[in-house]
Amino acid sequence: MTDSTLPTCRFQSFSEPSDPRQVAGRVTALRQALAAQGLDGFVIPRADEHQGEYVPAHMARLAWLTGFTGSAGNAVVLADKAALIVDGRYTIQSAEQTDTAVVTPVRMEDTPLERWIEQNLPAGGKLGYDPWLHTVDGVARLEKAAAAAGGSLVALSANPVDALWSDRPAAPSAPVKAHPAAYAGETPAAKLDRIRKALAEAKVDALVVSDPHALAWVFNIRGGDVEHTPLPLGYAIVPREGRPTVFLAPEKITNEAGDAIGAVGEIAAPAALEEQLKKLGAAKAKVRLDATTAASALATLIRDAGGTPDAGTDPIALMKARKNTAELNGARAAHLRDGAAMTNYLSWLAREAPKGRLTEIDAVAALEAERLRTGLLKDVSFTTIAGAGPNAALPHYRVSEATNRKLEPGIFLVDSGGQYEDGTTDITRTIVIGEPSAEMRDRYTRVLKGHVAISRLVFVKGTSGAQLDAFARLPLWQGGFDFDHGTGHGVGSYLSVHEGPQRLSKLGTTPLEPGMILSNEPGYYKQGEYGIRIENLIVVEERQIPGAERVIYGFETITWCPYERALIEKGMLDAGEIAWIDAYHAEVWEKLSPQVSGEAKAWLEKACRPL
Length: 611
What we know:
It is built from 19 helices and 28 strands. α4 (113-120) runs parallel beside α5 (136-148), α14 (325-352) packs across α15 and α14 crosses α19 (598-607). The longest helix is centred in the middle third of the chain and has 28 residues, at 325-352.
């Protein structure tokens, strides 16, 4: 297949996102700019002012400088060396995308950002940073690291990368729209009442809403300023008493959204934010800032004006995580729709993949097209991960024209999702083309056992994701295996597919509560050969257990799609696991069979037969 005949997608592209050949010249230019300012180095995070997972194109400074396009990482450029510090998900990708003769990829788990600075910043060295791109806590850590090296940290009023980026894209200008009340399930006025009560309990005078997800949720608005997540990039200030102010470009706000915001608050241009923060400071206000998303620059503006910045928990995060009845019903409806699309897709794949003509790009395009046929798809919820063979061993693989592989006998992994107005979906299925090896069946079944273990769990109120994560890993551990990502992340309601604070992870310290949506996605990855991951979305719900002395929770599964029977080694499953899988498949058939027909229905019937 030539480039000219590659299939196209509405929401995804397959062009190579970076060019390592550009890195050397750009790093050299940055060093010259730093030297002219008397600086010995500069930190470049993969972040915008909101610390979002997706950054708008004009904020992708790390990608422009180093070529690395992953969702997390930091670069540090000194006069004589430069490092690109990424987590274990991106070890291979970072080395492929940057010029390693100029920038050295560093594994964060071995050498965190702060330690690298301690070890490499010269004594007396001045390390620059952009205070709009780092949180208060992040700056404190950088200051400590620079001091440990015998140097100092310097806040810059302008980001030096921006002056070098001659073809920098324009800021996004997507319209801000109202999110229908039928899907939101609660009015902005009711949400603001809850927020004000939380501010009173915390004894703070105001809250700066710096997370666009929180902004969208509170005021029941959605936008399109970043890819795959319907976010309006902006801020709000919610006082403990009085009307809030939303900082969004007025020309972006539709009449309906303007009416929704205007009913409860004021609208101001983004440039007015600094003036409002200074007014709060001058009034000696104590202002809550979200420790995870609020820029250090916000705290400085409040403090310098005489106020008290209070970096802590944004009360909106937990409110947003606990979905209401309308949001949960919307999620269930979205997953039924999505499950039918997946059934049509997997049945097509079962017919076409063995012919040996499909590529990863073909597979991505076909799945997006299947979701578009629902007539309700607004976007994909993230760039589809579709890995054949060794590409499946890269947990965050993104197919491009350069990496596109044919689907040959062996493993094919597809992790994808859709953004619908009523809900956000995320599902992973691993299939086999041809006959699997005994090893593949063993590894798949271990992953499936961990996946089923999470699905069947019951746990006491107050339990966090960190306390549950090991249940997904135990079958892998028993064979001497593991996976290097969390078992599950929170999911938003027509918002981000990755939502906190809830997570199933060694780092998940937030207690799980009813209404929270999470993913359940253990995996196994054999570098250079194949990878396996199985993912459903689950909802925390209360369970009624006769005689229980504590409040007990469990999980409702809301994703409906068969597992890969050819990869299941039935002899490795116990009776309870077999019963759960059979019951799940029976429900998949009951829910999806009325929505599909023809070859897809025949495929589904076969896929859902009892083990």
